[in-house]
């Protein structure tokens, strides 16, 4: 949310129950990630207990196939997935916005070339690209992030290009140009507030997706490698020990809550950042 | 004579993919003096809005357009020549011409800011302008959607005033507004012209308002200016049959129950204008040569100009025949 | 025989976030066959809601009271199914924007004949024949060819003519026209007004024209009702209302018009703006903007009183005395 909007638009959307739940979960997970060493009963890699213990007072979430505490691994897992998801979305958004703004603003062959490139990348399934990267550079979380960034910038580029194109011909931009505003100032002053909102919404929704995609890659063995405590990899371990439900269920629930939380918040932001619907929400 | 704004032979082509170029304005002439209100009227599709956009430089055009003696260069990617700041535009739809996501005060202050005023000073002056156009003092810290259509149009007018303009082109500035807001916004524009000694091109399809406020009126048909003259004389003795048709189509609220006169036929497709005089297929007074010769806009006596073979250059306006010519 | 449409004490409440708000407040009028009745007013005066109430097209949460007797039946008391049958067949509607009232993807023939075949049970060829006649009636050149075309192929004025033809397809007795010429050029408007005028004479059709344009009223309406804040300010014969208005609001509207001879240089708007839904002041709704208001206007609720033959005004102080 931009600073300017905050006094008006921000206050009331949080009265919406879903947004509140989502925000609460996000705050909760951020705190968990920050305070992991204090919260976790054990280290994520400590093999101190018997294998595959059912949840009990001692091991709230049970233990996994190597005798590690699932609760501790889930808590430490948030330190892997969340920061990487934020980082990934930030990279993709910055790259996409830059490409989209240049394409929308200059038009002509620049626009054509950049958008055909975006189409090309867009058509490429992220998982396949990640597999290709893993094959070329080795299966590492860092390479998975790289692969996901490469496939996720085009959606930002398209969004921003569309916004720039429609705003570029808007009469308020024409009025601003007539007053002597330069192209760059027009972009920064007149178009930025119109672009920032939708991009922020898309980014918020995307954090959830990024968590899902990274977990998916790790699940497939293309991302985080054992023994890292990563939710997707842990779900994979759960799949291998299918009759021991607690091994896969708890990391799965973590992924679910994070993805849902970011979706709720993203949807609410979308309404809140539009001054017209913001008023409707305020009632 | 030094005109504030002078357009000579302006033509605008719209290039469309897979279709012939559409000539929306075809060799139109206009001139405007300081302190003068020029009404520009015509049916929709006649090119009056396009001509308005062309004279301020929003629309690339052929021909010559001069403001304060300097040529108007179409706006490209580069910053507009600061010498052109005196030439501003007010748009039809005040919902589209204000940025929905910026404070009203910031938008009005832009004009000062871009003129080199410091930001606090620009915001203070913007507040003054908003009060000048009749808005409450707290308007500056609100968003456009919090205002009615009439108020928004006042905001848009205030924004142009921040550039200290000597000429405003207003494209249908009141047609999107409610009846009572229409009258007060029109009055505001007239007051500003008189007070600041500006020139105003008032583009409108509402002939009765133009008749009320314009010093001179220009009538456009199918991309051409077909008649120009002092408003009073033009209305009392139109020189062009099209002008007369437009005027007699306006219904009067006099309770007499008189049906307005119908002008048969539609405006032809501007991509395929008729040969000869463009009005001849709909003209009740058309002569055989009208389908062949395209009359230029020529000056008559009394500051009037017309593009019609029924009038003689340099002579006073000859009254148009009242009886319709029999169909041939 | 009574009037074709007799509206008595029509009241419409619209649901808002702050509860129900009155949009039309005790409106009464009647329209005879072959008569053009004009309802004038600014936006928010309740004129469009009146039309919507008669057609049963109000939003779901709206409530009505009063009666609207049409051909002996109360439109407000009808079930949706009965109303659907009346609407389109006995009462038809023409709206402001023909580009939204005509379906952009269907041919003119489909749009014209659909209702005839549904409501009147005509065969395909009979319906087609009537469609050609109708297009000819509304002066569409080359009606045979026009049938195969789509709305986008016509100009705004032609589209409005086609919309009128669609409205006339089932020989309605009453035509509701909501701002039928507002979106059109004056030259085209003149043609549509002439068409409405001719239709009522040829078909004994009753027409309710809703518009804010008193010039349009003056051209076609036989009687005029001026609405303000959901109520009748003044109702009477065209000539009397427009030349000898008895309500300060009517007078204000007429004064705000550009002078017919031009030259006065400024326009005289009514100060203030019309009340929005739910903010109608107590007493006479016009009193905050009225130059003749007396203290009584703030409390009393003036009912229309007869001020001349068929001419009533809801303004007891008679501020404009001497004009009548």
TrEMBL record, chain A:
Q: Which domain of life is it from?
A: Bacteria
* InterPro entries per the UniProt record, alphabetical: BP-dependent_transpt_permease, MetI-like, MetI-like_sf, OppC_N
Domain ABC transmembrane type-1: start-end pairs: 78-266
The topology of this chain with respect to the membrane is:
Multi-pass membrane protein
Q: What sections of the protein cross the membrane?
A: 20-40, 84-110, 117-137, 143-160, 195-225, 245-266
Q: Name one GO cellular component term.
A: plasma membrane
Protein localization = Cell membrane
What keywords tag this UniProt record?
Answer: Cell membrane, Membrane, Transmembrane, Transmembrane helix, Transport
Q: Look up the record and give one Gene Ontology term from the biological process aspect.
A: transmembrane transport
| Record family assignment | Belongs to the binding-protein-dependent transport system permease family.
Check the record and name the PANTHER family matching this protein.
D,D-DIPEPTIDE TRANSPORT SYSTEM PERMEASE PROTEIN DDPC-RELATED, OLIGOPEPTIDE TRANSPORT SYSTEM PERMEASE PROTEIN APPC
Protein name (Swiss-Prot/TrEMBL): Cytochrome c550
Supply the source organism's classification.
Bacteria, Bacillati, Actinomycetota, Actinomycetes, Streptosporangiales
Automatic annotation (TrEMBL), chain B:
Looking at the keywords, is Transcription present?
no
Q: Which GO terms describe its molecular function?
A: ATP binding; ATP hydrolysis activity
| Keywords per UniProt | ATP-binding, Nucleotide-binding, Transport
Domain ABC transporter: start-end pairs: 5-247
Highest taxon of source: Bacteria
The record's listing under CDD domains reads: ABC_NikE_OppD_transporters
Q: A Pfam family in this protein?
A: oligo_HPY
Q: Name one GO biological process term.
A: peptide transport
Under InterPro entries, the record lists: AAA+_ATPase (IPR003593), ABC_transp_ATP-bind (IPR050319), ABC_transporter-like_ATP-bd (IPR003439), ABC_transporter-like_CS (IPR017871), Oligopep_ABC_C (IPR013563), P-loop_NTPase (IPR027417)
Q: Which NCBIfam families match?
A: oligo_HPY
Q: State the family it belongs to.
A: Belongs to the ABC transporter superfamily.
Return the PANTHER family for the record.
D,D-DIPEPTIDE TRANSPORT ATP-BINDING PROTEIN DDPF-RELATED, TRANSPORT ATP-BINDING PROTEIN
Q: What is this protein called?
A: ABC transporter ATP-binding protein
Q: Which organism is it from?
A: Acrocarpospora corrugata
Automatic annotation (TrEMBL), chain C:
Name where it's found: Cell membrane
The reply on keyword Transport is yes
Give the chief site where it resides. membrane
Isomerase as UniProt keyword: no
* UniProt cross-references to SMART domains, sorted A to Z: AAA
- Keyword annotations: ATP-binding, Cell membrane, Membrane, Nucleotide-binding, Transport
What GO biological process, any one, is recorded here? peptide transport
An example Gene Ontology cellular component term from the record?
plasma membrane
The record, for InterPro entries, names:
AAA+_ATPase (IPR003593), ABC_Ni/Peptide_Import (IPR050388), ABC_transporter-like_ATP-bd (IPR003439), ABC_transporter-like_CS (IPR017871), Oligopep_ABC_C (IPR013563), P-loop_NTPase (IPR027417)
Q: Name one GO molecular function term.
A: ATP binding
Q: Where does the ABC transporter domain lie?
A: 5-254
Indicate how the chain sits in the lipid bilayer: Peripheral membrane protein
Would you identify the family this protein belongs to, as annotated?
Belongs to the ABC transporter superfamily.
Protein name as it appears in the record: ABC transporter ATP-binding protein
């Amino acid at each position: 949310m931009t600073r300017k909007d905050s006094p008006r638009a921000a206050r009331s959307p949080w009265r919406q129950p879903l947004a509140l739940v989502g925000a609460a979960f996000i705050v909760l997970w951020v705190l968990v990630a920050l305070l992991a060493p204090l919260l976790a009963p054990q280290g994520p890699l400590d093999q101190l207990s018997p294998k595959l213990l059912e949840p009990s007072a001692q091991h709230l979430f049970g233990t996994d196939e190597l005798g590690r505490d699932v609760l501790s691994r889930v808590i430490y897992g948030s330190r892997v997935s969340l920061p990487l998801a934020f980082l990934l979305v930030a990279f993709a958004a910055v790259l996409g916005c830059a490409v989209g703004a240049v394409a929308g603003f200059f038009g002509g062959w620049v626009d054509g070339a950049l958008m055909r490139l975006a189409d090309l990348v867009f058509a490429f399934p992220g998982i396949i690209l990640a597999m290709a990267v893993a094959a070329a550079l080795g299966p590492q979380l860092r390479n998975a992030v790289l692969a996901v960034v490469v496939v996720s910038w085009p959606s930002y580029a398209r969004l921003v290009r569309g916004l720039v194109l429609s705003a570029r011909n808007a009469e308020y931009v024409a009025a601003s140009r007539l007053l002597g505003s330069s192209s760059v100032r027009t972009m920064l002053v007149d178009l930025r507030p119109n672009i920032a909102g939708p991009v922020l919404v898309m980014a918020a929704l995307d954090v959830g997706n990024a968590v899902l995609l990274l977990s998916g890659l790790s699940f497939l063995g293309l991302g985080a490698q054992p023994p890292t405590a990563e939710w997707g990899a842990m779900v994979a371990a759960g799949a291998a020990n299918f009759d021991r439900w607690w091994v896969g269920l708890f990391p799965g629930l973590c992924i679910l809550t994070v993805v849902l939380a970011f979706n709720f918040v993203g949807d609410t932001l979308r309404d809140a950042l539009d001054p017209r619907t913001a008023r409707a929400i305020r009632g | 004579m030094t005109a504030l704004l002078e357009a000579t032979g302006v033509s605008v082509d719209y290039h469309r993919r897979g279709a012939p170029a559409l000539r929306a304005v075809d060799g139109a002439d206009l001139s405007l003096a300081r302190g003068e209100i020029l009404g520009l009227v015509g049916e929709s599709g006649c090119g009056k809005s396009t001509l308005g956009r062309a004279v301020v430089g929003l629309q690339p055009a052929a021909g010559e357009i001069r403001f304060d003696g300097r040529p108007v260069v179409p706006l490209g990617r580069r910053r507009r020549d600061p010498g052109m700041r005196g030439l501003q535009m007010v748009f039809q739809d005040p919902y589209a011409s204000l940025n929905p996501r910026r404070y009203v005060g910031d938008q009005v202050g832009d004009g000062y800011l871009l003129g080199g005023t410091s930001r606090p000073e620009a915001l203070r002056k913007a507040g003054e302008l908003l009060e000048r156009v009749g808005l409450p003092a707290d308007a500056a810290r609100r968003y456009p959607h919090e205002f009615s259509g009439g108020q928004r149009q006042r905001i848009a007018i205030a924004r142009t005033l921040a550039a200290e303009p000597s000429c405003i082109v207003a494209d249908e500035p009141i047609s999107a507004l409610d009846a009572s807001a229409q009258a007060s916004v029109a009055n505001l524009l007239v007051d500003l012209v008189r007070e600041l000694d500006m020139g105003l091109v008032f583009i409108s399809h509402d002939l009765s308002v133009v008749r009320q406020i314009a010093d001179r009126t220009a009538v456009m048909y199918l991309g051409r200016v077909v008649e120009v003259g002092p408003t009073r004389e033009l209305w009392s003795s139109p020189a062009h049959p099209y002008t007369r048709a437009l005027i007699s189509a306006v219904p009067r609220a006099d309770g007499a129950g008189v049906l307005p006169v119908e002008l048969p036929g539609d405006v032809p497709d501007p991509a395929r204008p008729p040969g000869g005089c463009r009005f001849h297929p709909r003209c009740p007074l058309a002569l055989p040569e009208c389908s062949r010769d395209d009359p230029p806009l020529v000056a008559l006596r009394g500051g009037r100009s017309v593009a019609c073979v029924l009038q003689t250059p340099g002579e006073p306006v000859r009254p148009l025949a009242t009886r319709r010519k029999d169909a041939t | 025989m009574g009037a074709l449409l007799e509206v008595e004490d029509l009241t419409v409440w619209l649901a808002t976030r702050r509860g129900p708000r009155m949009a039309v407040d005790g409106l009464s009028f009647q329209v005879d066959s072959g008569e053009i009745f004009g309802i004038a007013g600014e936006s928010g005066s309740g004129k469009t809601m009146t039309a919507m109430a008669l057609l049963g097209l109000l939003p779901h949460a709206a409530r009505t009271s009063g009666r609207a007797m049409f051909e002996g039946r109360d439109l407000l008391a009808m079930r949706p199914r009965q109303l659907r049958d009346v609407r389109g067949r006995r009462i038809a509607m023409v709206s402001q924007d023909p580009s939204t009232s005509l379906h952009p993807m269907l041919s003119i023939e489909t749009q014209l004949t659909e209702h005839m075949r549904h409501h009147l049970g005509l065969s395909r060829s009979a319906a087609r024949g009537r469609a050609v006649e109708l297009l000819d009636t509304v002066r569409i050149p080359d009606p045979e060819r026009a049938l195969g075309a789509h709305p986008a192929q016509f100009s705004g004025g032609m589209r409005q003519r086609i919309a009128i033809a669609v409205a006339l397809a089932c020989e309605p007795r009453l035509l509701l026209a909501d701002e039928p010429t507002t979106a059109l050029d004056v030259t085209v408007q003149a043609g549509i007004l002439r068409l409405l005028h001719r239709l009522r004479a040829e078909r004994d059709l009753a027409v309710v024209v809703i518009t804010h344009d008193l010039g349009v009223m003056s051209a076609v309406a036989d009687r005029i009702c001026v609405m303000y804040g959901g109520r009748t300010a003044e109702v009477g014969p065209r000539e009397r209302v427009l030349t000898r208005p008895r309500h300060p609001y009517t007078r204000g509207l007429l004064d705000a018009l550009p002078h017919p001879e031009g030259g006065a240089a400024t326009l005289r708007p009514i100060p203030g703006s019309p009340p929005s839904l739910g903010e109608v002041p107590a007493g006479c709704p016009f009193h905050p903007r009225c130059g003749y208001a007396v203290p009584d206007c703030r409390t009393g609720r003036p009912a229309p009183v007869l001020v001349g033959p068929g001419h009533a005004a809801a303004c007891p102080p008679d501020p404009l005395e001497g004009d009548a």
